[in-house]
Amino acid sequence: MVLTLPPGDFRAYLFDCDGTIVDSMPLHHRAWCAVLGEWGCEFPEELFYAWGGRPVADIVADLNERHGLAMPVELVLRRQEEHYRRGLPGVAAVPEVLAHIEDAHGRVPFAVVSGSTRASVTTSLLALGLLDRFETLVCAGDYTHPKPDPEGYLIAARRLGVAPADCLVFEDTDLGVRAATAAGMAAVLVPRPGQRAHV
Q: Are strands 12-15 and 167-171 parallel, antiparallel or unpaired?
């Protein structure tokens, strides 16, 4: 698959992390299932991808409501990250996105805008040897309103000193693309793993 970029002379690239830079969504799903299984809670793959980009607290709250459970958000988050980190040695970058990172590095500044915690994003990027490519990370806790609100992307543009209209966003979820669009930025959608071969 070749990831075709929209036309434009972009002065910054802003990336979501999981499923965009890091081919980590299957690993995240396995980690979610391992943790939620302790409460007898199912999280089907289709629902997992449909909820891509949502904050962990919202996901746990909705799963609690659907299944009549009272899973503690902080504990689920901590356990999910523990399971995820154990699987990180086998994770890879999304090749089509990595190609654009390698091509543009040094020409335009990069930022990450993620719904994941800073610890999770940092661990993932370190595992791929890519952390030093990014001038700034905007993670959960750095903004008040999650995607599809544009706040995270606007913070990243401000930190880089680049106008929103001059930023290109790489995203793997509809929520993320909506956030980029609301920020006045162009966006490219990265297909999920099972769809990339067909693009």
A: parallel
